[in-house]
Specification:
With 154 residues, the chain is mainly α. It has a domain of 94 residues. It is globular, with a radius of gyration of 20 Å. It binds fe (ii) ion (FE2) (2 copies). The site of one fe (ii) ion has 6 residues, from helix 3 and helix 4.
Length: 154
């Protein structure tokens, strides 16, 4: 799962925690799954409460659909924990996969708008995210022209 950065540190920190929890949930054995899902649920309660609070305090225009999505995910998490307590590990692992698939879209479409909104309010500017190149992204095509320096050194 590739980390998602939105450029507003308080959101990015919480998202990194969530991604780490999802990674550990995916690697859980059945005997660990209930404990891990309880941690995921606790995280989601706090994660969503913080975002909902920012949206409410700042009159964020698109708060309704964003908060509704949070509510639906939380309701599912409660039901899934109940099912895993009854031994339905398949439902628990299915929920983890569903969260892994759901989160990038939620972050891209809803949390990113909140990150921009919060950055503009706090810093008066849009967030900037700088991604370091991975080795596979480094240019190795020698057919491309070499960069030319047009400046002069006195
Ligand atoms: Fe979020
Ligand atoms: Fe969110």
């Amino acid at each position: 799962m590739k980390s998602i950065l939105l450029g507003y540190a308080p959101i990015d920190v919480v998202h990194a925690e969530f991604e780490e929890l999802l990674r550990s949930a995916k690697e859980s054995e059945e005997s660990q799954l209930l404990g891990t899902l309880r941690k995921v649920h606790k995280h989601l309660v706090e994660h969503f409460a913080q975002e909902d609070k920012w949206m409410q305090e700042t009159d964020f225009p698109a708060a309704g659909c964003h908060m509704d999505e949070h509510s639906r995910v939380l309701a599912s998490a409660v039901q899934v924990v109940e099912q895993v307590q009854l031994g339905r590990f398949d439902i628990g692992f299915g929920f983890v996969d569903a969260l892994v698939n759901w989160f990038p879209g939620h972050a891209d479409y809803l949390d990113s708008a909140l990150a921009v909104w919060m950055c503009k309010r706090r810093f008066g500017a849009r967030p900037v995210v700088v991604h370091p190149r991975t080795p596979s992204e480094t240019r190795q095509d020698s057919s491309l022209p070499a960069p030319v320096c047009t400046g002069q050194i006195a």
